[in-house]
Write a structure and sequence with these properties.
By secondary structure, the chain is of the alpha/beta class. The chain is built from four helices and twelve strands. It has one domain (5-262). The strands form three sheets. Strands 1, 2, 3, 4, 5, 9, 11 and 12 form an eight-stranded mixed sheet that branches. Strands 6-10 form a two-stranded antiparallel ribbon.
């Protein structure tokens, strides 16, 4: 199946220039995904700014968000399409960088192969990806590991929501090049103000300004000696399982954010 959705390249994981209105610069559409039937469970920013609720097919009374920047799940696709339609010519579709704060890849334990040392009963089981775990020190000075595993709830449910959104966007933006990235801001302090919009803004701020050859090496998504990583694009029949979206992870307190990038090795 041919699809207009592909994993973005790690070299494309950069913020546009100062002129974010330049039509030749692909906009960053960043979504904190929620999957609720009744609440504004999603946040969205495009190039660091809030976007309005969609107007087409919605009552005027529903177009003011209770929390600015937050949206119902079903509003995401029409809101993105309306924003693009006011800034780009329909005769000349371009590219967008789409970052979703939800798991966009999976990891599974390696299976035994001919000649390998025999593996245990867990071979083929889901395993944690490297960015799913955060090592640190607790209040008593003891080492601790926080985990936000892709295969547990709510993460696995958000993966389903991501697939459905990608299918909807691929159809609505036929002709556009949709470059896919994963955002990760799940490791937060409990006293931080909560807002889906705020999470998208943290990811926007975490984007590097330009490629820097002196930055540390990109982190792997999974240890290849332990397991294998697969893309949800293969699961959704939208691309090969080997087309893995890079991950931008933002952690730490508001005054001490740490930004890390993860990518699978290209074959």
């Amino acid at each position: 199946m041919t699809s207009n959705v592909r994993a973005g390249g790690i070299e494309e994981l950069i913020k546009p220039g100062r002129d974010t209105t330049n039509p030749d610069s692909p906009p960053w559409v960043i979504i904190d995904l929620g999957f609720s039937g009744s609440s504004r469970s999603c946040g969205i920013t495009i190039n660091g700014s809030r976007i309005p609720d969609p107007l087409e097919g919605y009552r005027s009374s529903s177009s003011t968000a209770k929390t600015p920047g937050d949206k119902h799940y079903g509003m995401l696709c029409p809101a993105i399409v309306e924003w693009l339609s006011t800034r780009y010519s329909p005769e000349k579709p371009g590219a967008i960088n789409l970052m979703i704060e939800a798991p966009l890849s999976m990891a599974f334990a390696k299976r035994s192969a001919s000649g390998d040392r025999l593996r245990g009963a867990h071979q083929g089981n889901p395993i944690a990806r490297i960015p799913d775990q955060l090592e640190g020190i607790d209040a008593y000075g003891r080492a601790q590991v926080q985990r936000r595993l892709w295969y547990t709830q709510p993460a696995s449910g958000l993966m389903i929501g991501s697939i459905r959104l990608l299918q909807e966007l691929a159809t609505a933006l036929d002709g556009w090049d949709i470059r896919l990235f994963e955002g990760f801001v799940s490791f937060k302090n409990g006293d931080e103000p909560g807002s889906h919009w705020r999470d998208t803004l943290e990811l926007w701020r975490g984007l590097p300004e330009s490629p820097n050859p002196f930055e540390p090496l990109i982190n792997p998504i999974v240890d290849s000696q332990v397991g294998k990583v697969e893309s949800i694009l293969g699961l959704a029949n939208m691309g090969p399982s080997s087309d893995i979206p890079p991950i931008l992870r933002v952690t730490g307190a508001p005054d001490n954010r740490v930004t890390e990038r993860y990518a699978a090795r290209r074959n």
